[in-house]
TrEMBL record:
Residues 54-92 form the Zinc finger Sec23/Sec24-type domain. One of its GO terms (molecular function) is zinc ion binding. The gene is LOC105125818. Residues 403-509 form the Sec23/Sec24 beta-sandwich domain. Residues 523-621 form the Sec23/Sec24 helical domain. Residues 124-391 form the Sec23/Sec24 trunk domain. InterPro entries: ADF-H/Gelsolin-like_dom_sf (IPR029006), Beta-sandwich_Sec23_24 (IPR012990), Gelsolin-like_dom (IPR007123), Gelsolin-like_dom_sf (IPR036180), Sec23 (IPR037364), Sec23/24_helical_dom (IPR006900), Sec23/24_helical_dom_sf (IPR036175), Sec23/24_trunk_dom (IPR006896). It is a peripheral membrane protein. PANTHER family: PROTEIN TRANSPORT PROTEIN SEC23, PROTEIN TRANSPORT PROTEIN SEC23 C. This is Protein transport protein SEC23. GO terms for biological process: COPII-coated vesicle cargo loading; intracellular protein transport. Residues 636-723 form the Gelsolin-like domain.
Amino acid sequence: MGEFVELEAQDGVRMPWNVLPGTKQESSNCVVPVSAIYTPIKPFPNMPVLPYSPLRCRNCRSVLNPFCTVDFSAKLWICPFCFQRNQFPPHYTAISDDNLPAELFSQYTTIEYEEPQMISSSSPSPMIFMFVLDTCMIEEEMAFLKSALSQAIELLPDNSLVGLITFGNLVHVHELGFGETPKTYVFKGSKDVSKDQLLEQMGFFLKTPKPPTSVIAGAKDGLSSDSISRFLLPASQCEFTLNSVLEELQKDPWPVPPHQRASRCTGTALSVAACLLGACVPGSGARIMAFIGGPSTEGLGSIVSKNFSEPIRSHKDIDKDSATHYHKAVKFYERLAKQLVHQGHVLNLFACALDQVGVAELKVAIERTGGLVVLAESFGHIVFKDSLRRVLQLGDYDLGLSSNGIFEVNCSKDIRVQGIIGPCASLEKKGPLCSDTVVGQGNTSAWKMCGLDKATTLCLIFEIAKKDSTDTTIQQPSSYQFYFQFLTYYQHSGGQMRLRVTTLSRRWVAGLGSAQDLIAGFDQEAAAVAMARLVSFKMENEAEFDPIRWLDKALIHLCARFGDYQKDSPSSFSLSSRLSIFPQFMFHLRRSQFVQVFNNSPDETAYFRVTLNRENVANSVVMIQPSLISYSFHSGPEPALLDVAAIAADRILLLDSYFTVVIFHGATIAQWRKAGYHNQPEHQAFAQLLQAPRDDTDEIIKERFPVPRLVICDQHGSQARFLLAKLNPSASYNSDSPLPSGDVLFTDDVSFEVFLDHLQRLVVQ
């Protein structure tokens, strides 16, 4: 798998099939879809940034790249996608074999352009944050939120523009530009507010006449900069006013009768924020930072009634179509998502409550705008506080927030794009590249990415369109190479507009004997992640879909296609080392929180899936199959099998399941710790053993977003469930032979050994 990681380090791309099946039938026999998992703005230390415009093919608009055929004497280059001959412009006249421009260097398959006029433009666009605060919370939670925001405001760049909206039963838009006394504009929470009504009621045209244009969008359409700066001010100018407003901010005064939920108009508040930003700063990459502490019960987008007698929807209610508010709320947030994508704005959500707040409904708006989501139990929780700091901080571990992205794909003929599963929205650019089958955001070859960062990762699903089959294995003549080109035009975190170009080449094989070539190019980790995204998408969008059955059938067909076995002899079954870990990934995916929604709320499931759909392969694999490291006196830290057999009384285990990091002390270790041996000078080795997993945990937490929850527990303790739930139940209460450690899992889940045994029997039939 090392060579695939090296390819990712060069281009930010992982593909399940690095040698492609050559025909439509071959592709369908391969089960795992032909796909690419791509991180558009992954940082590369050695990637050049070219200070000039890219050279494009005059036919298909692809960019000059190392796979182009170049005729130096005639000063021509031939596009590998459409075979169009293109003349080099005059400033390329000096090129030769010994004097190549950077974009033709074979090692620069990924390169960036920053045009000179963009560099010399007056000043880069500032970042814009619209804080939307829920005030229907207990005083303690309000205090936590105000404290976190006060610290966050100090991290904002001085030139970044800031606005503030608070809401409960009513929506309050704070006029920060009027520093003498607090001044707010109030909107009724149960009523939808259009952009025109908002501009009218907030006095945008008191001093200047209303412009004749039908669409009012920013200063260029007649809004005076003075009226915009009443609500959006540079952080350096409004820090004092903002802190004063936060200090005086009280819990929503609207009375809440007994046995009723608070009246909370989340949807209306977000709609007002979107309209205000759309009027003042369209196309700016502004971010709505929504801090929500409970379910929406008032106005559009409400997810439950105010009566406590009506419970909040569960997975069962959604499946049975008995969640009365769900579909209406999703439709509302789809409209909001469309508006935000059109304006180029991002919705970030920080949901902190013991109850559900509506992440399942909001998911569509967060995902299509490329927003971030953080889910925690309280605004005082370290997960929320550290995640918020990570969003705003600059430095070694910043997220590299970028905006206004447009992502385009170009590929050789005989390949079609079915769609993208990930944080983007279709721009509906239809063309010959679009497949009739749509997966995720499809029917287009261009997508809008309102918000993206260094880790944002897309999963492109392709379809092989070539129908005719050949009888011989095709080796490697260049005419049978496939080419892909990914173009990402985006506003860099520094404010400049850039174009990132990644061009890839893969070969295809078909006919007899192609199986060995396909296996040689199979990336098991990328395949597991593509299947995880696909099964999550199908669970959300296909009625009566059975994920376990679908995954099992896919695995059986894949093993039957590429395994070695004699018919009706399970013991003869074997898989190539290139495929041997894939059944293990599928076993853990079947048991993961993406497929097993029992015991998780719709909000939690939506949160897990949003995060899976934006993370790279390495992080996604940890979500599917957590990593386990063992620490003991006998050896240094070493990887352990994700199995109940890994538990021992004299061992510490560190489980990383991405959302939760667990430090698990064996029974003997826990006793010694409680006795305080680690504080005694003669037991320094024990103190170091206890400290080692803590140091490794700090490293994990430092680099991860959202910040994971840390659980420190002991064997036989109640919180040990966080570890036990992820382990392979090789010893359960109904096993024949108990383990020497004495730990058994009380579960009816089958173990990996039983799963593999059944798989072998079904494959060889």
